[in-house]
Amino acid sequence: MAGLRSQRIGFLGAGAMGEALAGGLLAAGVPADRLRAADPDAGQRQRFGAALGIATTADNAALARDSDVVVIAVKPAVVSRVLAALRKEAPDALAAPLWISIAAGVSLARLAADLPPGARIVRAMPNTPALVRAGATAFAANASATASDRSTAQALFESVGLAWEAPDEALLDAVTGLSGSGPAYVFVFLEALADAGVRAGLPRDAAHRLACQTVLGSAKLALDTGLHPGQLKDRVTSPGGTTIAGLARLEAGGFRAAVLEAVEAATRRSKELAGS
Q1: Is the C-alpha dihedral spanning 85, 90, 94, 99 positive or negative?
Q2: Mean pLDDT, the chain, whole residue set
Q3: pLDDT surpassing 80 at residue 160
Q4: Are 108 and 136 in contact (CB under 8 A)?
Q5: How far is CA 107 from the centre of its chain?
Q6: Distance separating alpha carbons of residues 67 and 265, to the nearest angstrom
Q7: CATH of the domain at 261
Q8: What are phi and psi of 245, to 5 degrees?
Q9: Vertex 63, ends 62 and 64: CA angle to 5°?
Q10: Does 95 lie in the same domain as 8?
């Protein structure tokens, strides 16, 4: 993280995920005057600046010129358009920075096609819990990126949670299916768990808070102990008890198979979108 504090980091796009990353960097000790964001929307710039105390601009070219690291935080559909405009307006500004893209489905090859030859590029797949600095991010770098560049990307994403460098960019589709789409699966489970508590007689607010804390605590227990989830499950499951009765119903309903199929379907769709 010490290396990040000396870098000038610019965000192309002042949306929610860019704000989450910038906020994480601030919390990790990166000075506000080393961060900047560009966005054509005045309202977005105002919200970003007010929330974080970071300077903003409408000038993408100025941001690129003044940054050592540029985070591409615009919608995937406009990445090529934004980079093409930059290439036309300020071709001299594109060669120097490390480019880190969080645009879902935009491959390293597509990014390289829109940037100068030899550009150092990292492609990342964060997820929405990064908004509360509990994210899970995987990233892959192109051949031009150095070990220092990869360390910079690792530190940046660790400021908002866990970060994992994928050994192959192709694995980012599986990451999209698991941790990228995974929060939605968890939210559906949370909703069902809370609804089940209400059905059993609990007040709605209590059911919701107990369900959320149960999922949070279980995930923390798995991460902190390093034990296999099956081992932790067995510790809660007494012979002939309540937990095994509940687990039997989950298995009968195809719970495990449904999760496997959900991740597989989302991974397949990620590949389809990337090829479109």
Answers
A1: negative
A2: 94
A3: yes
A4: no
A5: 16
A6: 38
A7: 1.10.3730.10
A8: -65, -40
A9: 90
A10: yes
SS3 95: coil
Q: Count Cβ atoms below 10 Å from residue 78 Cβ, excluding itself.
A: 13
What domain range includes position 199?
180-274
Q: In this structure, which amino acid lies at residue 37?
A: A
CB 111 within 8 A of CB 74: no
Looking at the fold, whether 161 and 202 belong to one and the same domain comes out as: no
Alpha carbons 83 and 110: distance in angstroms, whole number = 11
Within a domain: residue 175?
no
For 51-92, the pLDDT digits (tens) are 999 999 999 999 999 999 999 999 999 999 999 999 888 888
Number of structural domains, the chain? 2
pTM strictly above 0.90: yes
DSSP string, 9-67: EEEE--SHHHHHHHHHHHHTT--GGGEEEE-S-HHHHHHHHHHH--EEES-HHHHHHT-
Residue in this structure with the two tokens 């590949």, named with its chain if needed:
271
Q: What is the pLDDT of residues 200-213, one digit of tens each?
A: 999 999 999 999 99
Average pLDDT for 153-159: 95
Q: How far is CA 70 from CA 82, 118, 169, in A?
A: 13, 15, 20
Angular region, 13: left φ>0, alpha ψ -120 to 50, beta rest: left
